[in-house]
């Protein structure tokens, strides 16, 4: 191991290619252990304030822009064409199925083009409903993340620090691996000083810069919105006290408030936008605190290759509402386990089960269905996506085998032509077979009329 010093300086070309955004007069220097033979690029220093925001809402780009943040991540690793200019996009390897050699090559290309400068590690691997990994599994995969060749953040555990992260960092040292900064999450009461004290402890323990990739004020005992005990005024006071302290602590390199919705029982008063997408008083303060005044406007009108088509007749095709409606079926649900994009995906449970949605179609028109599927584990059998008339003779218009495996998301694309009926049912149904089907995940479902 050799000790190196990374100079973090401002250089616009490394961000978006647009000149004049960051002047480069200040340098941030910190030390960390680096394996022999590894060379990391020089990294631009930008503001600390960021946001984690998925790309499934049609107006996500404008929302990111209006927050005047300096950096943005999506819990995924696909750089969208809708990313506002002059923002540092930071990819994440969410879980064990999020990376392979092909993904490493893709990220290296983004690195070489100056489009990414950092990489975030696994999301809450100690959580059963999150990436759900053992330390041994994470350590086995970690060299692939290092191979991308940019400063690399640790897995972010459930909470600021725990036994999982302690063991992981011990194994990093024992195996000569690399972690360049510690990622943490924190959702507690509105006690700014208690939060800061815990951050100080984590820095003293690991001696590495810290990124707070999720934080907010949560009431986890509340079971209804009415029971939530923290007021918007309390949360705003917490943010007003905390953020200047995060800016003053040199070891805090970045932070990102978690943008919960107002209907989130535990986090409703931490919302940055109201139901109409207008900034709350909390959101206004966050936007105007240490703002990136050179952030570009939102690019909501563009359509990226991995984003839901606004012309799709499927409602909630990305399951990003967090609930199934208007999806129907049986033995199903919404899952947070490594979605294709965003925070959620659909789930058909073990053995038999289904997901379906009834949509309006134009008689005689041709439609293209696109969706992504993944098995929870190896399956000997497969099943079909079916399109059938909802009324009339209820004739089957399409029946095609689904392509999917347990190693990652597989894109499926099929077409059908509507009959004279105006409603059809799009069905993903797996029956009872031996051996039994494992759980199946479904995401980013679209059905678009072919012109």
From TrEMBL:
Segments for region (Disordered): 34-57
InterPro entries linked: ASL1 (IPR053183), Asl1_glyco_hydro_catalytic (IPR024655), CenC_carb-bd (IPR003305), Galactose-bd-like_sf (IPR008979), GH (IPR017853)
Domain annotation CBM-cenC: ranges: 312-425
All copies of domain Asl1-like glycosyl hydrolase catalytic, residue ranges: 55-286
Keywords: Hydrolase
Pfam short name (any one): CBM_4_9
Any GO MF annotation of the entry: hydrolase activity, acting on glycosyl bonds
Entries under PROSITE patterns matching the protein: PROKAR_LIPOPROTEIN (PS51257)
Signal peptide extent: none
Entry's Gene Ontology BP terms: fungal-type cell wall polysaccharide metabolic process
TM segment ranges: none
Protein name per the record: Asl1-like glycosyl hydrolase catalytic domain-containing protein
